[in-house]
Specification:
Largest interface: A-B, 31 and 29 residues
Structural class of chain B: mainly beta
Largest sheet of chain A: 6 strands, mixed
Oligomer: heterodimer
Number of strands of chain A: 10
Distance between the termini of chain B: 37 Å
Distance between the termini of chain A: 31 Å
Number of helices of chain B: 0
Order of helices and strands of chain A: EEEEEEEEEE
Strand content of chain A: over 45%
Radius of gyration of chain A: 13 Å
Helix content of chain A: under 10%
Chain lengths: 111, 114
């Protein structure tokens, strides 16, 4: 899941709608997962995390769901706003804390 | 406020020159990481350190080196810059010793090798 760039998947949503961004991770031994948001010209910014002993975690307007059976992670953003427009990356890690990033998804919010 | 900074933010250099990118964090984190981000490859780990005097190679370490003489800094050196090293470089740090933990990223350095 390292291919990012010219052919990034893109999700376009209307302002106020909910967004769901999906990610498949590769290592069944990973026990910690993070969602990052990256705006143009900036470094990745932490959004929310979840440990493997949980299925769901909620933050402010964001929810992360973890399905270990199929190695799938999703990020739900409620009431999407123009400021949510960015590239979103999931990342997995375990002991040693070496992050492995998934393919990013471009989120475009239409006003 | 604690933070992580990188310098310079933009750098243009010539093939064969030695280049050093600085990373400085004020969180007192033990773990520090360097990544590069390229179109078509996402973020890839170059080198990392779990503490002073500790350095380790990541996925794409060839042509790069790091040193950790104190907790706050992990400079990244390109011994002899190559055009293939044109990229955006990000430094990150995390607190939990070797354990899975959130990494906090700097603003990045855009390096162009001509």
């Amino acid at each position: 899941g390292e291919n990012v760039g010219l052919h990034l998947p893109t999700l376009s949503v209307q302002e106020g709608d909910n967004s769901i961004i999906n990610c498949a991770y590769s290592n069944s031994a990973s026990d910690y997962f993070i969602w990052y948001k990256q705006e143009s010209g900036k470094g990745p910014q932490f959004i929310i995390d979840i440990r493997s002993n949980m299925d769901k975690r909620q933050g402010q307007r964001v929810t992360v769901l973890l399905n270990k059976t199929v190695k799938h992670l999703s990020l739900q953003i409620a009431a999407t706003q123009p400021g949510d427009s960015a590239v979103y990356f999931c990342a997995e890690t375990g002991y040693g804390n070496k992050l492995v990033f998934g393919a990013g998804t471009i989120l475009r919010v239409k006003s | 406020d604690a933070e992580i900074t990188q310098s310079p933010r933009h750098k243009i250099t010539e093939t064969g020159r030695q280049v050093t990118l600085a990373c400085h964090q004020t969180w007192n984190h033990n773990n520090m990481f360097w990544y590069r981000q390229d179109l078509g490859h996402g973020l890839r780990l170059i080198h990392y350190s779990y503490g002073v005097q500790d350095t380790n190679k990541g996925e794409v370490s060839d042509g790069y080196s790091v040193s950790r003489s104190n907790t706050e800094d992990l400079p990244l050196t390109l011994e002899s810059a190559a055009s293939s090293q044109t990229s955006v470089y990000f430094c990150a740090s995390s607190a939990r010793d070797r354990g899975p933990d959130t990494q906090y990223f700097g603003p990045g350095t855009r390096l162009t090798v001509l």
